[in-house]
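Hey, can you fold this?
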Amino acid sequence: MSRFNTRTARAQPTSRVTSTGRVLRTYEGGRGRERDARSELFLLSVANFVSQQTFYESGADRDDRFARLVGELAVTDPTWTAGLLGWLRGEGNLRTAAIVGAAEYVKARLDAGVTAGPSNRQVVDSVLQRPDEPGELLAYWTATYGRNVPKPVKRGIADAVRRLYGGRSLLKYDTASKGYRFGDILNLVHAAPDPEKPWQGELFQYALDRRHHPDTAVPPASDRLLTAHRELTALPVEERRAVVTSDGGAERLAAAGMTWEALAGWLQGPMDKAAWEAVIPSMGSMSLIRNLRNFDEAGVCDEVAARVAAKISDPAEVARSRQFPFRYLAAYQHAPSLRWSYPLEQALGHSLANVPALPGRTLVLVDRSGSMFSRVSDRSRLNRADAAAVFGAALALRAADADLVQFGTNSHQLPFRRGESVLRILQGFRSLGGTDTTEAVRRHYRAHDRVLIVTDEQYTFSRHGDPTEQIPANVPVYTWNLAGYRAGHGPSGKANRHTFGGLSDAAFRMVPLLESARDADWPWAV
């Protein structure tokens, strides 16, 4: 009788975050699993806000581990590493990790004399996607390795400069607060204008003049944006507020590229109701979300507030902003007025568009232990526990039949109704102390078709073994790692045990692939 060669036979799916088989200990003493270098770097990259401390690791320790792993793999597996760095800055939307990683990629390869694989110049260019990022990379390199900048770094930055520098970016990012101004970068990397952009030569010269002769620098007459901006800045201070309150004031500010950050300094006075209402039409959605409290405090009228609400909740705007879902949760938690609640709830829902509707019965376990309450970054008030709750609740709501459980030292099932909002479900989550993941799985697993655990994986020792051992081998267990620590709480990569990572919902695309018996590749290879 045919046992394997049948029409219904399927190969066992695999995923790319892979365990080596070596046993480690988690920070809480549980029996952990070592991952191979590529897997460790991937999980660290997607969870790492550079220089940010986590519960178990200092920022310096994480940065050192990140730099070491990038350096090793830049030499031994340059194509994979270059793919990771480009994806981090692109779809991954992680600026700092990509920039630091590119610098470490180049340094390791130059030190080792390696030339195989993607060129150093290409990798540098690939991670520079915003006009202020050439200066960021230069600042990191000179602070870390000195002012002798190698040619591949200069050439990669020059390539990016030709793509990124324009009149609007000059106004927004070429400010006195920067250590490297646009003119400094142009001088250092010897960036020639793009032949396909005839206006760029005059722009580059103006950037140099702004840096070295600011009192006499004159923008190109052909650049209407820069010319309009110069006309506004030339106005006496006492005449400026009249521009804001005049008919057509908002249009004039927009035509001059006046950002909300620059407007207060230009007015040399408070950002009152009129100032905000004049600049709001030209603000991007994330700038709007950052300033909801300021709008309320200034008394922005309901008509303007309605336009703000429509913009921040528009699905196309949410997709274009490419923000992590937890950004909307943070705004919801700190916006003072109820008029922003529903638009932010809509925006959060749009940002979770990749969370799949899983069939069958699903057990979703959300880690609410103490270590998860460290903030995702020093500049964010939101913690990993709440980020985990966002995704756990979204998964449960989309699934055909789900049990949603929060766990720590103990565990509790959270009731919810079909169609209930994510934000309402979040109100039931609590801080639950330690990390007894194994016991939570043992208590709540009831012949589910799959188990998904959103956690930092640092579970405490259990005599019953690791959390994944409590599930039958034929049932998939998906671990979503939010912190990128070295030791995992179970095996990964095959045999129905898979680990993903990061603070966006992109990883969940892999679950349907695996369950349809297709291998889940690295995100940039999909």
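Oh, and this one too while you're at it.
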Amino acid sequence: MLNKYPLWKTLMVLFIVAFGALYALPNLYPEDPAVQVSGLRGVEANAATLDSVKSELTADNISFSSIVLENGQLLVRFSDTEQQLRARDLLEESLGDKFSVALNLTPATPAWLASVGGTPMKLGLDLSGGVSFLMEVNMSEAIVKAQDALVDDFRTDLRGEKIRYRSVKKANNSINVQFRNAEDLTAAHDFLKKRYRDFLMSENADNLTLSAKMTDQKLKEVREYALQQNITIIRNRVNELGVSEPLVQRQGKKHIIIELPGVQDTAKAKEILNATATIEFRLVDTDGDLSAALNGRVPASSKLLYERDGKPVLLKKRVMLTGDHIVDAGSSFDEYSRPQVNISLDSAGGGKMSNGTKSNIGKPMATVFIEYKPTDRKDAEGNTIFEKIEEVISVATIQARLGKTFRITGAGSQSEAHNLALLLRAGALVAPIQIVEERTVGPTLGAENVKLGFQAILMGFGLVFIFMIIYYRAFGVVANLALGANLVLIIGVMSLIPGATLTLPGMAGIVLTVGMAVDANVLIFERIREEMREGKSIQQSIHQGYDAAFSTIIDANITTLIAALILYAIGTGPIKGFAITLSIGIITSMFTAVVGTRTIVNAVWGGKRLDKLSI
């Protein structure tokens, strides 16, 4: 029988639309203004923190809807933004610098809906609010770190060529190598000049010193590498934070712009993004005199550092391994339920660790945590001077020869172990960075954008709705039902996909798909009219109309989908937001405009003897 679907096909269409409606439903529940309290540098919120926050809010007559302690964080919900802002100011003052207090918009999805994975769509910075950072890379420190690495390279290369030297030191913008005799000076000059063509080599025969200075081109390469590598590492860290549709791009010669939409914990984001943490592995100097070192007489080949509890440790200056060779890191617990960080090295790092530990089994090895913190001082070029902080986080005896995988303990808490693993996994910044500008897009502006965007969608939908009813009558109602189902499916799919984010350009993509969806129905309905004018029966006209228009609809939508996928692949930020809603809209519109409308048409008109058709 013409134009009759079997029951299973009709039920399948209804199930898909109902499924999309279920996961679009969380978007009907407005978000609650909230304040999130989380610890810094390994501190976690606990029951005592919860009681303290409750008493502070109650004493200041600030009403709150609920307060929940979960995963070491407190989430306090409020009924309006006025109470939220008052609470933020109060808690920032009362909790001190051990906790971050961040504004947050928290979904109010019912528990039964959340239990089946229902969550509202993620909104971009222009809709949900968020934070934008302008960060400056400290190029002076980048050059200093490059010189430090070159000092080690010079020593290794000269030893490899068996050229004896007295010392290799860093001085201003050059590296000075002092030799014992003129023959070694000449041999080193010839060798290093060939190996390091980006350096200007000069000899001083009077004090047997070779000076190597970076050329302007080499300095430019170092600065460019520092900027590009920092951008890559920051992108990795943003990905670890789980921020949707982030924007990380360079601006000028030493600045990076970072936009984090919907960030819940601004202080935590700043701590992770700004951190320059890395680790080094050094042998403990068991032969040195610790008492003499504490009195200022530190051996030339050693270095005095301290553990977190203030215990001094005398270490060898020579570094066994740096964090540059770490390819993966994760946090877990050891057999005594203490937090630990599991580390995997690249092949070069595994070789260095193996060579460094094979002859030192039974000796203590220290894990040194290093980070740079900005000070109030400036250098001659106006750049912020960073203070290097070194801290021993663990000292362990080498039990066996280590390879590409091993673990370190002493992180303090699970939260701190997690943060350390995140930083090591994402990579250490090549040069320290500092935030020179921070802009916060408030939820009020985002709410206004959401309101105006949905007004545009509803206005476009309404005009199409009226046109279709006037021009196609009953079949226009069918097309409008399909349009409504299409909109529901787009929102449902956007809510389901973890990486999908709705932005203002994304709303434009939804409006465009509304027009494209109705365009498919226009092709079908006009073809049905044409078949009827040629004298075919109504059932034959409906059947031929859908079948003949199908290939045209597929061709038109596939070409548009290819263009949308290219936009998503090469675009960034707003372009991706537009491309993803357009791609989803094309797929759902093909389903609703062809399969959805035909299901309704078959159910209402299919298999019946008709004399006329309202089209």
